[in-house]
Amino acid sequence: MQEFLKIAKTDFTATFEGAWIFPLLLVSVACVFRLGQNRVQKLMFGLLPCIFLAVYWCPLTVMLFMRLLGENVYWRILWLILPAMVIPCAGCLIVRRFEGIRRQALFLLLMAVTALGGKSVLSREWFEASTNVYKVPQYVVSVCDLLPENVHVLASNRLTPYLRLYDPSLTLAYARNALIYNAIDADGPLENLYRAVQEPEIDLSVAAPLAREEGCTFIVLSASRTFQGEWEDYGYRKYGETDEFVIFADIDYEEGQDTRKWED
Fold first, then answer.
1. How buried is 49 (Cβ within 10 angstroms: 0-12 exposed, 13-18 middle, 19+ buried)?
2. Residues with Cβ < 8 Å from 107, sequence gap 6 or more?
3. pLDDT value for 264
4. Which of 61, 81, 107, 196 could form a disulfide with 207 if both were Cys (CB 3.0 to 4.6 A apart)?
5. Residue (of 83, 156, 157) closest to 114 by Cα position
């Protein structure tokens, strides 16, 4: 439970640190309670946001939503639902109390406060200019340039959303959204394989046989990963590497062989 709360705290800080959005959200909730026209408005834009914040910090709901959504998306409950609905509502309630030039001036002021209260998405911290026409990270291009066409691949979670964008001839063990397996507790070859390769130190006696069972001709993992055992003992050989990833291939693979598990 402490681990889940630690993740919630980290996500909360990362979402609102260095911005005015959270204080602005609280002020907006107070404005809705004070200026709301009816009970429905106060319920939807005043009381429910408070409930959402309580749900976010409640240990039981933290554990539930992280298992359902994954820790990588849990924090989105903070900004996809609350600020986007409550702050505009409060702004409209305030602006409508004025008329003429004062209304226009107040509208521009509230727009400026909202804009300055966030973080610029074009800053170097959040925005990275594309270096290729496919508009995928360059490390994906580097990996795909080494992989042959028409093969079935088990890839790092960092790669799965992009590999088929660059090379649609590849098929992927988890399709494009590997993170959904964070919320799956069922036992099966693919689920067990996903859990095996998420271990801090991958036990090849477990992961490699499962990968072969699933027909994974190529395995692409971060170069920083460590392993128990040798790949050659379990039917794989080192095929290539980039600055960030290492590629292993089934020892039975022959160049030009089509090992895809479904058609494009």
1. buried
2. 91, 95
3. 41
4. 196
5. 83
